Prior knowledge:
This protein is of the alpha/beta class. Helix 1 packs parallel to helix 2. The protein is 48% helix and 10% strand.
Amino acid sequence: xxxxxxxxxxxxxxxxxxxxxxxxxxxxxxxxxxxxxxxxxxxxxxxxxxxxxxxxxxxxxxxxxxxxxxxxxxxxxxxxxxxxxxxxxxxxxxxxxxxxxxxxxxxxxxxxxxxxxxxxxxxxxxxxxxxxxxxxxxxxxxxxxxxxxxxxxxxxxxxxxxxxxxxxxxxxxxxxxxxxxxxxxxxxxxxxxx
Length: 194
């Protein structure tokens, strides 16, 4: 995997703050990263609407973190902030400029949280989705890293069958799995496609 920092001391693991969009996507990523890092998850997803859906996804992540003994930090649910970021981009196709702006918002906030809490590096689970452009996500991560002054771990977690593995893990644990990306615009796109 690109960007992993090798460790010569097997007993020392760098602290990593992992932005997680949901429990299912976090499963395989946490399993993978825990070999080399001391992982803490961070749930900052003001794009997820409605609030009932937000709470379901947070609940699934809490369930998995409890099972694995992983610390979970929760960011504020700032829908109004996300709506300002997405304003004017409502009609963009899924994966377009609205999504890029959304990635930037969430990864900047993750970088800020990582810096403020003394983490060595930050990463995101977002690249595990086959519906998301890993290059765009990694570009947003590097931009956030530069802006905030915090190292970013570049990865494409869907490689090596990561998405399938995350599906299997989450299914075996009975975790709630969502049916759309998160924002109401992506939810409406799913309705139109049915």
